[in-house]
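Fold it.
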Amino acid sequence: MSSSAADATAVIGAIYMRRAIRAYTGAPVDRSTIERLIDAAIQAPSYNDNEPWSFAVVHGADVLHGLSDRVKAAALTAPSHAMPDRLRRELADMAFNVFHGAPALIVVCATSSRQQDAEDCCLPAQNILLSALAYGLGTCPIGLSRPWLQLPEAKALLGIEAAHVPVFAIALGHAAVTPVPPGRRKPSVSHYPS
């Protein structure tokens, strides 16, 4: 097998193997690994090569556990679509940790409030989700954290510039449990011309 075929197989394998990890061992993730993940993240394409992203990293399961209550309170009070009862009960549970015990969090931020910049930030986020597998790490997107992350006091605490917009938060660590892949629905696809 050629190296390009092996590389393609590895990429496809990562896409199919990646799972949202909601239980971590607690072992720390070293800063050099996080730096390598961010370097892989910034290889993503962006509109007009603007690279409209910045990153904030939170280190330590204890630190994240301490932030979880703030995130839960903001999520429960944020104006949004109807929240499922199951999720509302989880957020009200004092024992529920939004970050699932992860030892690190990477927040991908757009450097402006333009919708295109926010969309572009999803591309480096996906690179982090897939690259983490190469380092034996698990990840979980934490959408519940967005309402808190966008508060001025949260941005100040994490060193996020006031004008930057947190788009995608990723819990990161060594998986304690890897879930079984869920089935996927057949996609709706149209072709033109048919």
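The CA atoms of residues 59 and 104 lie 5 Å apart.
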